[in-house]
Structures are given as C-alpha cells and as structure tokens.
Amino acid sequence: MPGLDEAYQAELDADFTDSKLGGEQQGLLRSLLGDFRDMFVESSLKPGRTDLLEFSIDTVAHPPIKQRPYRVSNAEGDVMEAEIQQYLELGIVRPSTSPWASPVLMIRKPDGGIRFCIDYRRLNAVTIKDCYPMPLIDDILDVLRGAKLFSTMDIASGYWNVPMHAGSVEKTAFTCKYGLFEWLVMPFGLYNAVPAFERLMENVLVDLKWRTCLVYLDDCVVFSTDFPTHLVRLRQVLERFRAAGFKLKMKKCRWGRDQVAFLGHIVTPTGILPSPEKVKAVMNIARPHDLHTVRAFLGLTSYFRRYIPGYAAISAPIERLKVKGTDFAWNADCEAAFLQLKRRLVEPPILVYPDFSKRFRLYVDSSRLVVGACLMQTVDGRERVVAYASKLLVGSERNWINKTDGTSEIECWGIVWTTRKFRCYLDRTEFDLFTDHKALTWVFSEGIRTTNAKLARWAMELSQLRFKVYHKPGTSMGHADGLSRLHSETICALTISDLLNDDSTPPSEGSVPVGEAPPPSSLIESSPTETERPGGALDEAMRAAMDALNAVGEPPASADPPERGDDVPDNLGAPVDDVVDEAPEDGDADDEPPLDDEGQTASSPEDVFGLDPERFKEEQRRTPWIQALIAFLESGALALDAQLRVKVLQMAPHYEVRNGTLMRKIQLKARAGPARSISVPVVPLPFIETVLHYCHSDVFSAHVGQTKTMDKVRKHAYWHGWKKDVAEYVRACSICGSGKGYRPWKNGLMQRMPVQELSGPFSLLVVDAIGPLVTTPRGHKYILVFANYFTRWVEAFPVEALDTISFVKIMVDEVLCRHGVPERLLSDRGTNFISELAKSFYETLGIKKLYGAAYHPQTQGLVERFNGTLIGMLRMFVSETESDWDLYLPRVLFAYRTSYHDSLGDTPFFSLYGRDPVLPLDLAFLNTKNQWKSNEVAEYRRRLYLSLRDTRRLVERQLLKAQDRNARRRADQVEVQFREGDAVWVYQYFRARRGERKTKKLAFSWHGPYRVVGQLGDNTYKIAIPSHPDRVVSVNVNRLKKFAGRWSRPFPNEVPAGVERQPDADDVGPLTMDDLPTTSFVERLTLGGEETAFSGVTSPIVEVLAKRIRRRQAQYLVLTASYETCWRPKPTLLPEYAELIRVYENERRKEGGWPELRRSARLSDANATVDEDELLF
After folding, report:
1. Kind of pairing between the strands at 248-249 and 40-41
2. Where are the domains of the chain?
3. In this structure, which CATH number among 3.40.190.10, 3.40.50.720, 1.20.58.220, 1.10.340.70 belongs to the domain 576-735?
4. Which of 84, 128, 749, 790 is the most buried (most CB within 10 A)?
C-alpha cells in the first residue's frame, strides 16, 4: 500500500530524548524495533487478537439479568451513538438478541468531556470470582535492584486483545436508547477481567518474569545491567508478544532509559521515588469534606507511606475521623496533618534497593502511641534507607500504657510488629537490631528469664530470627525515635509559610508518564480510548482515591443510575409490561374478604373504612394526577402536559374507575385456589392515616407487626409509597413501643474492673444485703454482705434491720476494725447506702462511694453471685423451720473462704494471709501443721512476706485471666450509644401496688418517652424525670431503647407533577379536555443536574414544609391546596405568604432545642400508674 512504509517509519521513530544511550546504541535498538514493525500500531483502536485465551463469564445457573437503559441528555446521546458506531466498525461489538442487558452510563470527565461506560455491577454480583493473585508492588520494585537500563512497553487496548468465549458473549450485552449490543472481545468493568488478563500475561512470559522482565497487567518493564543484555532481553519479550498476537503503541513505549516511571514510582539504578505526577495528584487534592473524601485521601497517601517517615503519627488526626460513631469534625490538627502529608511528599527520600548480600540494620522505637521503624543498609560507607514503617497503637494495645511493665511491653511489641512487617527482608539473614529500651537487651540476649508471659512469648517468636541486639539512646536514633514521637502537636507548631498551599487545580492533560498504570474502575466498563487500565495493584481504598481524584483521566469506580425525582412513583417510568405489583411478601396472611359475583369484595372500599363515599371521591379528584387518570379512563381525555400524558398511558392498564372512585388492580398470592386479582381504592392523602389506623391500631387489628399490617393494607388500599408509610407508622407506634419488645440484655459492652489500679486487699469493697429471711429467735432477719474484690474474701453478718445505722455500725465494728478503711465502696442504690447519714460517713473516712445503675445488679456482680452461693450453702444445713440459719452462717463462711476459687486460682484465705489455715482434718490425720519455734519468728516473717508478695502478683494475673474468660463468654454483647437529647423508652420491672389487681402478663414493660441528659459511663446514661425536674436517674443501656418518634407524612413525595385545575373550576363530573386550561400547568426544571423547581402553579399555598439554601438564597418547600409540592425562592413568596414562613420558622426554632416529649394519649392509663420515684432507686 502506498505510504505504508513511510507511516511505519514515522511510527517507529522511537523517542530517545531522555535516553543515555549513545548514537551507535540507539541505531542498534532502532534496528531491533524494525524487525518487529508489524507489532506497532498508531492508535489504541487497532488492537491485536490472541488465541491463547477466550474470556468466559461463569454465572452458574443464575437467570439472565435484564436492566432498563438509563436516560441521557442530547449531548450524551451523541457521544453514545458515536462510540457504538465506532465499535461496530472495528468489529468488537455487534447487535444482540441476548436476554441479558446491562445499562450504558455516560460519565462526565473532569475536563468536561463525556466517557462511555457500562454498569456491570449486577452481572459482577452473580459471577463466580476468579482468585488469581496480583503481584505485590513491593516485590516488583525489590527485583529491580542492580538494574541500570529499563524499557517499558504498553499493549494497545490490552483487554480488546482477548476474544470472548462464544457461550459468554450474550452476558456482555449492554442496552441503551439505540438498542441492544454485545461484546466480541473482553470489555472493561467485568469482575474477572483483571485476574484473567494477568494470568494471560504471566503465561506469555512464564519463564522470563522476575528474571528478564516484570509485568503488571498490560504494563511491562524490561531491565538489565548492560546494553547487550538489554537487546537480548527486549528481543525475547517482543517475540513472545508477537507469538501471542499482541500489538504495541510506540507513543507509550520508552526504550533504553536509566530511569522510568512504573506503577506510580520512578525506578532508577540507585533507588526508587514516587512518581511526580502521582505526587502532584496528592498536592492538588482538595481538602476532605466528608468520610468518603477522607478515605480517598488516606488511601492515596498510604500508597506512598514507605517514603514518609512517621506516616502513622502524622495521619493520626485524620485517621480518627474514620472511627465508627465519630462525628466528622475537621479541626486544626486535621488541617495540620493534611498539609504535613503534602509537604513530606515534595522532597521524599530516595529509597535504595535491598542488597541481601549485606547486613541489614533495623532501628525500632516505640512511644505511648506510635511504633516507628527504619530499615537501613550501609552503601558506599554511609547508611541508606531501605524502607520506613510506622503504626498507631489501637484497641487493647493502648491498655499496656498504664501497666507496671507496660513500657517494656510496648517496646517489645514494636520490635515484634516491625520484624513481621519486614520479614521478607530479615528472614534467614543476619541483621542488627537497635533499641533505646535497655531492659529488652538482656531479654533477647540472655534467654527468656522474664515472668511476664507476653514478653516471654514474643521473645520466643523473635528467637527464630538471627540478629544481635544493641542499646542505643533515643537521642542518637532520630530516624526511628522521630517516627514514634512525631504527633499532631509538633505538626501544629509549623507555620503556614512552611507548608504548601492547597492548590486544587487539576493536572494538565498529557502529563501522565509513560509506563505508569493508573487504576480505572473495577465495576463499570469504559472505552479504552482514554489512558486507563485496571488497577488491581492497589487496594480498594487506593482505587476509590484515584478514581475520585481523576487526576490522569481514569473513569470513576462506580456510578449510580440517574435518580428520578422524588415526586414520581417508582413504577411510573417503567414500560407498561413492567408496571406490576411486587410479589406478595412472606408472612402470615389473613383470610380473604368475601367476594361478589364479579370476584370483588362484597362491600364497597369506602365502607371498609367507614368513610363518606362522596368525600372520598372529592379528595381523590383534588390530586391532579388522579384527576387526569380518571378523566382518561372514563372519557379518553388526555392531559395537555406531555410528561403527565405519558405517565397516564403507562398507568392506565393497572387502574379502573368504579362508581367514580379510582381503583388499583393488585394480584393476590395463590392459597386454596389459583392466584387472582382484586381492585382496591387509591387512597388520597387525607385518608392515609385513617387507613393505617384501621389496619394496625384498631381493636380488630390489635397492633400486629409490620408484615401483617402490610398484608392488611395491600388487600384493602393502595397509594404510592404505601410500604414505606406502613413501616414508618408501625415503627413509630407508641403503643407498640411501650407494650412490645423484650429487654435488650445484650446491649452494652462488658466493663472491666480496674484490677491493676487496686492497691491491695480491701482497697475495693462491694456491699449488698440478703433478705428478708425467716426471723430467728435472736431477732435476725437479714444478712449484710461485704466482699473484697481483690482476694474474694467475704464477710457476712446477720442483722435485724437494713437501716443506715445498722449498716454503719457493722461497717465500723466488724470491717474497719479488722481490715482497715477501704479506698472505695461499691453498692446498689438502696436507701441505707445513699442516705445523708451514709454520705456523711463516707466523707468522714475519705471513702470514695461508687453506685451501680438502677436495676442493674451486674455492676456489683461479685457480691450478687456470692449471695446465691451463700443461700445455697445455708440451705444444706438449716432445719425445716429455717429459723437457725444465723447459727450456721460463720461456719459456711469459713468453708467458702477456704475453698478453691476459679478466678483466683487459689482460696480466698491463702490470697489474703499467704498461708493455708489448719483445718480439723489436719489435726485428725498425722497433725501436718507447721511447728514454729520462738527463735524462728524472723524466718517466718520473711517467708510470710515473700509468700504474700508472690500471692498478690498471682492473684492479679488470675483476675485478669478471669476477666478475659468472661469477655470471651460475652463476646456477643452489642455496643449501643445514645446522644444527649435523645428520646428513649425505659424498661420498668413490674410492681403491683397495694390494692391493685394487675398482673405482670398484661402490664406495659416500657415507659416513656424520657430524655437523655448526659452519660455517666460507657453503658450508663442519665435520664430526666418529668415529675422531678431537678432530679435525674442513671439507667444502664440494657434498659433503654430508642424512641422512634411519632409518625407524620408531611407531604406526598411520590405524587407526579401533573395538570392543575383552575381554583374556580367546577368540581362536579369527570375531567374533560375542556376542563384543562392551557394557562395552568406544572413544569419540572432541572438546574445543574441537581435542583428541581416548578413553575406555573396556580393553586394557593397552604403550608411551608422545609427550608434549604441554594446559591446563597433561601428556598422553601411548600404544599399547595391541590397537594402539589415544590421548592420556591423566598422572594417569590413575599409578601403574600409571609405569615406561613413566620409560623414555620417559629416551629423550627422550637425544634432546635430539646424535643417536646409528651406521653401518648393512648398511654395515659398505662403510664398513670408508673411511679417516677421507682425509677430513681
């Protein structure tokens, strides 16, 4: 063909501008490329075709998925048509008759252009996943050590080189306004496309990868140490590509360079750097404004964390925004961290390649919050960085801070974590470990001689590595010490002039370095006419970040279909065949209503609700779209508005008019006979709540659940959005909220007693009472119990009464005089423990008093559990009259104190005294008690001291283990949080008053609503009591549940915009063409792809519903007399509707404070008997 050689010659003019090759070497390289000139194409739209793989999509036996096409604008339609025509001419798509259909989605690019994409999300969801692994970026970069020449190659339209399997072609079908088409080559956006293409590339280069070249999807880099070897390796790779049928694009290839961009990094003979274009993308990113953009920013910067010393500490303020339940608040610390991360990427250190023939030097330092590490090697007589690593301490790791040997544990954990992180470098090699914590040097150097089980376990793990430990002061370990101690305080100390400005200008086109692999969408197919490739190298956060930035023109990770306006029913935009009721939901169904001869309900629908038929019809005709639909069904009159006219034609087959009332046809599920259809009335807005009352709250419905209520409504009525209204109505029902639901026992995470903060025995006492029991001849009726939390030693005393005086007397005479004054005393909220006399007693002795929440005995669980054990032991010995229990009390207490306790690992007696008591059994058998002589008192005291010291250490460890066991048993506990001002129900235990004949079975368990006014602990909240404005109660979360509020339906958000009637139109008779004036209409306008406004509304406004700010102007959502809603700018409402605006603003100010919490009128009888004082104790 004429001019073909010239075209090839022009195409093969490789760019050697940045190459270090000499003229002769460039000539040899050009000659080599000339031998493969048939492989190079001038456009990405001329891909090759391989016969090594046919891509298939395995969906097992899943039925075909059919989706409707998305609507597009005229400009988007033109681009769509051009793209499809181009694909047809290239022979990569064809018209289809497939039962599968995925919609085309047109995406706006940052430069204002339009990208052709296909939404394959639903197809991907049913596809069997291919788990072929992607190579790790760090492994690829480490292999390039020692290389001096690099060449990168890019396969033209990589995916399009792979043909589709004949059996899977139909599954790739995509639908749009121009028809249905299917792919003949592997398209972008399919889930298994990335692993399939990577497998193909590795099979093509199976014996060359990792030695001659590296490949990541359609990017390939050939590396060598000298030019002759480089030519040989290039020929080997090009021959493999030719045999596979691939084509290359010369414009995107780089030949014989001493540094090249690859996978977002600059690869050089001396080390690696982040790509300037990727760094520029970070520098140009705007300040995060929500959780999504925070994740995108951190995902992007985390990709370069190997270059940033102290990354974990710097990013900590922003990382905290990702914690579940945290409010998004961008403060000064976040701003400083944001700017600091940008600044650190401007001048990153050059990381050297690891040399496994040389000894590694690992520097590790840990602070109270961060672990920092630096892996280094000596190159040319000076230390060079191989990699940085840092990590924030999270969760239980932060608990080590307050432990006695917590510093050693944190420092040791830092070494363990770092060696795990760098295990690929340190395994089976000798290295030097430097730490500034001298105590660890003997642990690792002299063997495991520590009593700390955690340190011993870690030392045993580290013993598998070959290293020497050296102590180095923190002042001489700036690179590692700085990583662990750098925090937001030091970041905030930087001045603004030292930091980079936030420049959000996007990078210019064409600035992408060749050889780089930017990650495109993994969910949506996109045309490869742009510079885009699948980015499996990055994790999901990195993909989201790069897609959100669109820094180099990649398509977004996912896109939702265009949403219809809130005022249009879900089924109005569907084809006529698709407008059917959903299948009946599972659940109990009531019997059908009796049928007449025509198969319909015997009574009229209006009679079912006890409504006036004429008023019902009148309210129906007040709704414009219902009025237009009735006019069409009765006389064939069509609306003048084009949009409404189309909707009426679509809805008409599913509606009918009977006796002047619009009815909806619905399909009932088959029961005794075949499935059948009935017609139910379309309920206008004023009657919706009436219908919901009869179907849920009426005595003949008896407050049944959501599924049963939906079944009743479905059989008797219809309106747009009825399922959502039913769900909200049932959820907000006050009667159901107070009378239904079990107590949420699993609410609230387990709280640990601070064992490590206890100074010793009797530093924390727990007190409780048992009784009343049978009064003994000695006048005793109750048992007062004291339990020592540290040693589980218990004291129990019989008393005549449980008043404060008895409690104080026993406390002083029997507890304080024998064991000393405790630091803290824990009890429930019994009157004898919280009286003024008791408080004065605590203050006099300096005892810190702790209280458990009302009706939550788990707080003082130690003594509560012992009470049951004590009663069980007494039960074994008391007489039939049960009047001698106080005689056996001291003896069963001795039995308990000398018995093994699981949480102690010993007896309470030994834990307190450091010795075992002499039991009667010891005297009966061989008299095994120790015989001490008077001159051996000093030795006895020494042994006793050692025994008590070791015993208390053992007790502390055993208590912590017991708490861990308990935590595992309660692993299913759920964390529940309330905010100040929340309205809640409170679970109240049933108590029948004197003279009342009420039973627990029929009593309401939940009372309220009450208001949360504060939080005492993780699981305890303060609740305000309406009858005691100056008092609050503390309630545990397992007695609280959220108050759903009261149901309201402020406006019909699903009613379509339609034709309006004039205010003076005749309301009698059906609507005809003559009744539809051209001067009254409703037109929906879309502004900026987001805003929706209405014009031409002639009905008067009756209420203001909501407010928003758009372009610095206030807009109000208004409800018209014909039940239409629209957003209107404030100036258009003044002065005519100024009073409505004033009423709305006043109500809005009231809602700004605490919500008005009034009891439901239907609960007045049930709540009238609730004693608010009972909640206080």
Report:
1. parallel
2. 4-255+513-549, 276-498, 576-735, 736-749+973-1043, 755-966
3. 1.10.340.70
4. 790
Short-list 580, 683, 730, 615, CA closest to 1054: 683
Looking at CATH, the fold of the domain delimited by 755-966 is given as: Nucleotidyltransferase; domain 5 (3.30.420)
Among 448-452, 650-654, 769-773, 1125-1129, name the one with the lowest average pLDDT. Answer: 448-452
Q: Of 653, 650, 649, which Cα lies nearest the Cα of 665?
A: 653
Cβ(785)–Cβ(828) below 8 Å: no
Other C-beta atoms closer than 10 Å to the C-beta of 25 total 18
Q: What is the pLDDT of residue 932?
A: 52
Higher pLDDT, 791 or 54: 54
What are the Cα distances from residue 241, in Å, to 67, 94, 156, 996? 38, 28, 12, 92
Strand order in the sheet with 676-681: 655-658, 661-668, 676-681
Q: How far is CA 208 from CA 38, 213, 561, in A?
A: 22, 6, 44
| 692: Cα within 13 Å, side-chain hemisphere | 25
Q: Report the greatest alpha carbon distance in the chain.
A: 126
- pTM of the predicted protein model: 0.37
Find the length of the chain.
Answer: 1177
Q: How far apart are CA 1055 and CA 682, in angstroms?
A: 12
Q: Evaluate whether 276-498 and 755-966 have a shared fold.
A: yes
- Cα–Cα distance measured from residue 949 to residue 914, given in angstroms and rounded to the nearest whole number: 8
Q: What is the pLDDT of residue 155?
A: 86
- Which runs of E-coded beta strand occur in 848-980? 848-851
Q: Where are the beta strands (DSSP E) in 49-162?
A: 93-95, 102-108, 114-119, 149-154
Q: Report how far residue 347's alpha carbon sits from residue 512's, in angstroms, rounded to the nearest whole number.
A: 20
Residue 308, token pair as written in the block:
């940033």
**Strand 248-249 relative to strand 174-176, pairing:** unpaired
**Quick one: how far is CA 810 from the chain centroid?**
53
Residue 539 pLDDT class (50, 70, 90 cuts): very low
Q: Is the dihedral of CA 258, 260, 266, 271 positive or negative?
A: negative
Helix, strand or coil, per DSSP, at residue 497: helix
Which whole-number Å values give the CA distances from 362 to 145, 298, 407, 414, in the listed order?
Answer: 20, 27, 20, 12
Structure tokens at 941: 């005291």
SS3 helix, strand, coil % of the chain, rounded to 5?
A: 40, 20, 40
The CATH number that domain 736-749+973-1043 falls under is 2.30.30.140
The pLDDT-based confidence of 381 (bands split at 50, 70, 90) is: confident
Through-space distance between the first and last CA atoms of the chain, rounded to whole angstroms:
99
Q: Amino acid letter at 1040?
A: L
Tokens of 1066: 């005749």
Write b or e for each residue in 181-211: b if 16 or more Cβ atoms lie within 10 A of its Cβ, otherwise e: bbbbbbbbbbbbbbbbbbebbeebbeebbee
How many other CB atoms sit within 10 Å of the CB of residue 829? Answer: 16
> Which of these, 850, 886, 641, lies nearest to 775 by C-alpha position?
886
Q: Please state which architecture CATH assigns to domain 4-255+513-549.
A: Roll (3.10)
Cα-based torsion angle of the residue sequence 930, 935, 939, 942 in order, rounded to the nearest 10 degrees: 110
> Cβ neighbours of residue 757 under 8 Å, at least 6 residues apart?
none
Spatial separation of the C-alpha atoms in residues 750 and 753, rounded to whole Å? 10
CATH 3.30.420.10 fits 276-498, yes or no: yes
Question: Can you tell me the distance from the alpha carbon of 864 to that of 439, in angstroms, rounded to the nearest whole number?
Answer: 43
Q: What is the helix (H) or strand (E) element at residue 618, kind and residue range?
A: helix 613-622
Handedness of CA 454, 460, 465, 467 (dihedral sign): positive
**Comparing C-alpha atoms, which of 768, 819, 771, 811 is closest to residue 793?**
819
